[in-house]
Design goal:
Blueprint (H helix, E strand, L loop, with lengths): L1 E8 L5 H4 L9 H9 L6 E6 L3 E8 L4 H16 L3 H4 L4 E4 L1 H11 L11 H15 L5 H21 L8 H13 L6 E5 L3 H12 L4 E6 L2 H11 L2 E4 L3 H7 L2 E4 L10 H8 L6 E5 L16 E4 L1 H39 L3 H25 L5 H29 L3 H13 L3 H14 L29
Parallel strand pairs: 5-6, 5-8, 6-7, 8-9, 9-10
Antiparallel strand pairs: 1-3, 1-4, 2-3
Organism: Hydrogenibacillus schlegelii
Catalytic activity: (S)-4-amino-5-oxopentanoate + tRNA(Glu) + NADP(+) = L-glutamyl-tRNA(Glu) + NADPH + H(+)
InterPro entries: 4pyrrol_synth_GluRdtase, 4pyrrol_synth_GluRdtase_dimer, 4pyrrol_synth_GluRdtase_N, GluRdtase_CS, GluRdtase_dimer_dom_sf, GluRdtase_N_sf, NAD(P)-bd_dom_sf, Shikm_DH/Glu-tRNA_Rdtase
Length: 463
């Protein structure tokens, strides 16, 4: 089996392409049905967000090229875009690179905002949706489980989001560094645009109880105040409110400073408590001459952007470290994949062993006096244990050597020595009919091996 990842994202396609290449949740049942009607596709998971649409697919070696072409054609048909307009933006990754890509996506290393955590929830939801529509099997289930677990460990260990890249969020972080817990502080936000809204939301999230908002348009200030549990105050009273505040955050479009030194100097008097100004406006809202006036501290957009750039540099350093750990995760998944080539032989060996156990039980029950239920169960348990213990070394050897030349030779020798062909044929036929990997079942009876026990070469076989 082989893995394919086919799709586009913010790096490969402009927004006018990405916005047309989306799936609505109610469309997914029909989409999965359509995808899996193609014999070249065995498993599928669709990861669709505002910045990426990707198909993760499983195909077998014989149909890999057909599966790749079908996936590309499917996206062209589905999104009703000309092939020459869409295909240049599509990326196709195979096997190792597809696995690596999913680990990077889940950990936020391929996101527009490096290291963000929202994508992890979206990857988990995509996988759970595919499972609900019975579109996944063993390969993608294990792959997504491992990618999700890895991403959770990475975020917990490295705490990438402790280094925010949003200027409003950096401003709140600076206030927390300055004062510690903000819940008991008095905060004034001036400006009710998008930046002002983000500032208000972040301060509300910090539990600030005395939260005020001022804006030249009072209706907008009142609307945001209701949404975030703040109090709207007249713009004209901004200096008066600032006099009693601990933090003043500004984000207006005023052409001149709205907090000047003369006005604040008169208002503050002999105030000894610190007053922190966070000026996110361009042009600046706060007269830089205020910095150093008593206990007044002023940070403007350049100061905050400098912190953002430091955080971004740190995120990049952390991302590089996480990238290095992905190599081990990919190698571990590949080692697990290699063991799968031994699975049919192991299953056939175990199936034959259980068939012999069942025949032996049947023979014993005919020859022994009638047994009570407890004795019958005890006999069955011990005969099964005996079979498992006889096979365990062979099974362990097959697992340890899976994917190697030695392992393939061992598989062939065991199939021939234990005459497993009928059991492999039963298993193969079951998989072709269902498209799944069922639990191994023994044939009812194999006339060529019935009654033969597993013995050393030097021992005679008894029937």
């Amino acid at each position: 089996m082989h893995l394919l990842a086919v799709g586009l994202n913010h790096r490969t396609a402009p927004v006018e392409i990405r916005e047309r290449c989306t799936f609505q949740p109610e469309q997914l049942p029909e989409v999965y049905r359509t995808l899996l009607t193609h014999r070249s596709l065995v498993e599928a998971v669709i990861v669709a967000t505002c910045n990426r649409t990707e198909l993760y697919l499983v195909t077998d070696r014989r149909t890999m090229k057909a599966a790749e072409e079908e996936a590309l054609s499917f996206m062209v048909r589905r999104f009703r875009l000309p092939a020459d307009g869409l295909r240049p933006h599509l990326v196709v990754l195979r096997d190792r690179e597809a696995v690596r890509h999913l680990f990077r996506v889940a950990a936020g290393l391929d996101s527009m905002v490096l290291g963000e955590t929202e994508i992890l929830g979206q990857v988990r939801e995509a996988w759970e949706t595919a499972r609900a529509h019975r579109a996944t099997g063993k390969l993608l289930n294990v792959l997504f489980q491992r990618a999700i677990a890895f991403a959770k460990r990475a975020h917990t260990t490295w705490r990438v989001n402790d280094r925010p890249l949003s200027v409003p969020y950096v401003a709140i972080g600076l206030a927390r560094t300055f004062f510690g817990d903000l819940a008991s502080k008095r905060v004034l936000v001036v400006g009710a645009g998008e930046t002002g809204r983000l500032l208000l939301r972040h301060f509300a999230d910090q539990g600030v109880r005395a939260l005020f908002i001022a804006n030249r348009t009072p209706e907008r200030a009142e609307e945001l105040a209701r949404r975030f549990g703040a109090k709207a105050v007249p713009f004209a009273r901004r200096v008066e409110i600032a006099r009693e505040a601990d933090v003043v955050a500004t984000a207006t479009s005023a052409p001149e400073p709205i907090f000047t030194r003369p006005a604040l100097e008169a208002a503050l008097g002999r105030r000894e408590r610190p007053l922190l100004f966070l000026d996110l406006a361009v042009p600046r809202d706060v007269d830089p001459a205020l910095h150093g006036l008593g206990q007044v501290f002023v940070y403007d957009i350049d100061d905050l952007q400098g912190i953002v750039e430091e955080n971004l540099a740190e995120r990049r350093r952390i991302a590089a470290a996480i990238e290095r750990t992905i190599d081990g995760e990919v190698a571990a998944y590949e080692r697990w994949l290699e063991t799968l080539d031994a699975v049919p032989v192991i299953a056939a060996l175990q199936a034959k062993g259980m068939a012999l156990q069942a025949e032996t039980m049947e023979s014993l029950l005919r020859k022994l006096p009638p047994l009570d239920e407890r004795s019958r169960r005890l006999l069955e348990k011990h005969t099964k244990n005996l079979v498992n213990r006889l096979l365990q070394d062979a099974v362990l050897y097959l697992k340890e050597t899976a994917g190697t030349r030695e392992g393939r030779a061992a598989q062939a020798a065991i199939v021939q020595s234990f005459r497993l062909e009928p059991y492999l044929a039963v298993r193969s036929g079951s998989e072709e009919e269902t498209g799944e990997r069922p639990a191994p079942e023994a044939p009812r009876r194999d006339p060529r091996v019935g009654g033969v026990r597993l013995v050393r070469r030097s021992e005679p076989a008894t029937t």
